[in-house]
Structures are given as C-alpha cells and as structure tokens.
Amino acid sequence: MFKKFLIVFLISMVPIVELRGAIPVGLSTAFGDPLPVIPLYILCIIGNLLPVPLIFFFARKVLIWGADKKFIGKFFTFCLEKGEKGGQKLLNKAEKNNKKSKNSTATREIFVYLALFLFVGIPIPGTGAWTGTLAASFLDLDFKKSCIAIMAGVVLAGIIMGLASFGIFSAAGAIAK
Q1: Which listed residue, 36, 46, 123, 152, has the most CB atoms within 10 A of its CB?
Q2: Where are the strands (E) in the chain, listed by range?
C-alpha cells in the first residue's frame, strides 16, 4: 500500500498529469487495491501543491535562461509560450468580467484570482497548478493570493476528478435521459 501511495504522490507532482491523473490511479486497481479516498485526496493535493513555490519564484527565470539552449530550447520555449498564453487567458477572463460589472481596480483583482482559481480547478487539458502558477508568475501576481487561488483550484479539480472516477457524472447523465 505504501508503494501505491508513493506512486500516486509522485504522479500528482508531474506537470500536465498532476492530481487529475493521480486520483484515478489511486482509485483504480492498478498497482494494487484502491486507496482510501480521504488520504488519497490529501496526498494528491499536497503532491500537486508542493512544486508551486518553486514554479512561482524560479521557473520563469530557468525557462528564459534555457530557451536559447541547444537541446532544451524547444521545450523551454514551449513552456514559456504556455505560461504566457495561460496568463493572457486569465487576464482576458478577468477583463471581460470586469467590463460587464464596470467596477474598480480592486474588483478587477478579485476577477483575476477567481479566473486563476477556475483555470486551475476545471480539469481540462492544458490547465492545472503548474500552468496556473506559471501564468501567475508571468503576470507578477501576489504570491499569497495566487497560492490561495491555486490551492482552492486544486481542491476543486480533486473533487471533480473523484466524482468522475466514481462515475457520478455518468450516473447523473443516465438519470437525466
């Protein structure tokens, strides 16, 4: 059982896969019996959030440094572009909502962190804690507020993935027919 907890923890730290891939693995019979739900969620959330400070403070610098290097340049450039696109998406969503409500700069800031929360929390390809943190770093957002939005987003993604893994969405769809 320890081996499966370790595997799930490490999977939750991997970019792109993150908690979204770790929860289904933990609940499956792959690598042994399914893990207990609550410890699985806690472990996946911790594993997914562990790299956030490193990404926020160092990733952009490392990516910029490596973008022109021979072997790693293409990958680093891809990551830089992904972070910039993610940041632009967040700003566009926040601006769109702020224009609708015609509110102050403080309200705009709330919309930026709400957009960050949703960006991280809705488990679709290309979003997640890694991309959201990189986007927050690119936008020079406040570290503490970004961490709160990212943590809440990771919790939301975990809930959605857990429900999907248990087939709740499939059952609701079958009932609605």
Answers
A1: 123
A2: none
Q: What is the pLDDT of residue 103?
A: 61
Query: Would 91 be classed as within a structural domain?
Result: yes
pLDDT tens for residues 161-175? 888 887 765 555 556
Q: Considering the domain boundaries, does residue 98 fall inside one?
A: yes
Provide DSSP, 24-54. HHHHSSTTSSPPPHHHHHHHHHHHHHTTHHH
Which letter does DSSP use for residue 66 in this model? H
Count of domains forming the chain: 1
Q: Report the C-alpha gap between 120 and 18 in whole angstroms.
A: 11
Whether the per-residue pLDDT at 144 is higher than 60: the answer is yes
In a domain, 21, yes or no: no
Cβ partners under 8 Å of residue 83, min gap 6: 59, 60, 63, 131, 134, 135, 137, 138
Domain that holds residue 67: 51-176
